[in-house]
Amino acid sequence: xxxxxxxxxxxxxxxxxxxxxxxxxxxxxxxxxxxxxxxxxxxxxxxxxxxxxxxxxxxxxxxxxxxxxxxxxxxxxxxxxxxxxxxxxxxxxxxxxxxxxxxxxxxxxxxxxxxxxxxxxxxxxxxxxxxxxxxxxxxxxxxxxxxxxxxxxxxxxxxxxxxxxxxxxxx
Length: 171
Hints:
The protein is an all-alpha fold. The chain has helices at residues 5-19, 28-41, 43-49, 61-75, 82-91, 95-98, 100-106, 117-145, 150-168. The radius of gyration is 17 Å and the shape is elongated.
């Protein structure tokens, strides 16, 4: 299986930050709560977060795959619950990768109150944007060390960060 560019970028960020003794910005418990709330609330949950979340915004790879299954079901107009998500993941060959049906079913136990799904989703987005900022600034540092023109490096980094933020803040 070919490694996806976003996963490779996340691995690069993880490697850089772990060398410095820091973990990348992330909120796996909130990711679980968002996924669980969507399965509890079906299309109401997706209606609240579908415009602000994309699969790659989740830090945990399994959560990216699970949310991707939810998006597929939502786009087809199908119900989103533990069974349909599990069936979609099985059909796409991703069920074992996410931890199996047990992991999917346990996500609904992570929901304290589904009323806060949008707040939790926005925190997931903020963590993603912070990781993107780290990634872009790491790329800028590498270009600067390589001797690239400093003005071009700064200009392209600012442009890329603005594009990332604008693309991710469709609220």
